[in-house]
Each structure stands twice: as C-alpha cells, then as structure tokens.
Specification:
Length: 281
C-alpha cells in the first residue's frame, strides 16, 4: 500500500529551517497545543465540519462524495479566510502526498539546496513516511533534518535517526507547571530526548523561547539545557513574538516581542555555562 502523509505546505527555499538553503516540508497534525504556536492551523486534522466551505470567497472548497472537505488549489487565491474561519485549529488546504510526490518536489530544488527539513505540526507523527522520504532524499546527496517537538521516543524507535542527519529539538520549558501550561503535554519525553540525542550525536540544535517578564522560568530552562548540551550543539534562543499567536493567548503571554537586550542576557548565561554555540534570533 502506498504510504501517504498530510502535507500542509512545502517551502522550496528556506534559510530559517536549519543550516544553509533548505526545502522545508510541513506536515499537518501535532500532539501539543502550545499557547504561543504561530501556525495553530497545523495542530489538528480537519473534521470536515464545512464551516470554511461556506466562507471561501471563490468556491475553492467543497464536499466530496464521502462527505470530506476537499481543496481545489487551482481555484484558491490564498486569502486564508478558511484558516480564520476554522474553530478547530485546522486547515482544509492540505494535500495527502506520497513519498514519490514529495521527492519530485525536492528534485526541483535539489541543485540549489543543501538538504531538507521536515517540520509541522509535528513531523514525527508520520515517522514511517519520513523514513522512506529520507532514504530517497539521501540518494540525491542531500541532508535530512528533523524539526521536532520532542514527543517521539527516538530511543525506542531509532530507525529515523539512522537515515537522518540530526534533530532540531524544542525544549520549551523545564519548570513542570510552566511547561504544562505552555504546551499542554508532559515534558518527560522531551528531556529524555535531549540527553539521548546528544549521546548518539544526533542533536543538531536545541531551541528555547524567551518570554517577556518570565525571569524565573526563562532562566530555569536556559540553565538546564546549557548544562547538558555545553558546546556540543547549537542553542537557538528565540525571542517570543506575538505574530500569528492566537489572540486569547497573547493576553496571557504578551502582545509584544521580547526585548532583544532581555533575551541577550540568556545567551550570555548560556555561554557562561559552556553552551558556547548559543545565539539569539
Ligand atoms: S485560502 Fe481558503 S478561503 Fe481563501 S481561497 Fe483558498 S481555500 Fe478559499
Ligand atoms: S478546515 Fe476547519 S472549518 Fe474547514 S472543514 Fe475542516 S474543521 Fe471545518
């Protein structure tokens, strides 16, 4: 049976999804519900409620014979009215693609990229698909990076690591209460992955968001991560930005970007603890 996975979008050339120029492939579906998510429409699978069918201004959405909402990319004018309409943190604009179809897209950009990054949503929900995709992309001489929320048990099923070049791992919060509030998911597996991926030399980068006015929690996370990774991988310290964050959560987290000087303090803290590859964006 042909393996299929729901692709939310493919960015042919990205310079923010890992080193150098990469094709970034975003899959639909995530097991977290991060309050600060910039793409909440990637969290859930569409339940075909039909709300967006009514609001699409160009009739690019319709029901098929099975009662599923289908998207006509030729008619779509990318106005995102459907995304704004959806109350389920979903999007009707996904394509169920085979490995071969994704590889064909990668082949178009192959001469100009160093590799691919799979992201989401949470791409490891489609682990078997990724393994086959990476095998094919490797044949093109390209690198494969996994952008992950850390929920997948890489130690229990390391097959994907064997065909990939590394993981870019989000460690959003170490304080238990703060973590549970922020992402709605237990952090045990994330912290286990942090140590395991480092041990097997597959941790390319860790990412932590610095929230405004959350000194204690920011410091706890940066200290914890820095003490573990030291200089063995990159540490991306990300300033919280409200753009794309759901309005109700902007009230709780802040409707302004974390001040650069404030975030820079945490880069310096990381450096002082030996995480010399920490940097700010
Ligand atoms: S973005 Fe959504 S609402 Fe807008 S034209 Fe495309 S399918 Fe319709
Ligand atoms: S994308 Fe959202 S609004 Fe549209 S049919 Fe699916 S669940 Fe309903």
């Amino acid at each position: 049976m042909t393996l299929l996975a729901p692709v939310n979008k493919i960015i042919p050339f990205s310079n923010v999804d890992g080193p150098s120029n990469r094709t970034a492939i975003f899959f639909q579906g995530c097991c977290f519900n991060c309050l600060f998510c910039h793409n909440p429409e990637t969290i859930n699978m569409c339940i075909s409620c039909g709300d967006c069918v009514k609001t699409c201004p160009v009739q690019a959405l319709s029901f098929n014979e099975q009662g599923k909402v289908v998207w006509d990319s030729n008619k779509c004018v990318q106005c995102d009215t459907c995304i704004k309409t959806c109350q389920h943190n979903s999007s009707p604009k996904i394509k169920w693609m085979s490995v071969d179809e994704v590889v064909q897209e990668v082949k178009r950009t192959a001469p100009y990229i160093e590799g691919i990054t799979t992201s989401g949503g949470e791409c490891t929900l489609w682990n078997d698909f990724l393994i086959e995709l990476y095998k094919e992309v490797k044949l093109l001489g390209k690198t494969c990076l996994i952008d992950s929320n850390g929920s997948f048990d890489f130690e229990k099923d390391p097959r994907i690591l064997e065909v990939s070049d590394g993981v870019m791992l989000d460690v959003k919060a170490v304080g238990e209460k703060w973590n549970n509030y922020l992402i709605g998911y237990d952090r045990t597996m994330i912290l286990k992955n942090l140590e395991y991926l480092l041990k097997v030399d597959k941790l390319y980068e860790v990412r932590t968001i610095i929230f405004p006015n959350r000194d204690k929690e920011n410091e706890k996370t940066v200290r914890y991560v820095s003490n573990i990774i030291k200089d063995k991988c990159f540490y991306k310290i990300i300033r919280y930005r409200p753009f794309g964050v759901r309005e109700e959560y902007q009230e709780a987290l802040g409707d302004f970007t974390t001040d650069e000087d404030y975030a820079q303090k945490y880069v310096e803290l990381a450096h002082s603890l030996g995480a010399t590859k920490a940097y700010i964006i």
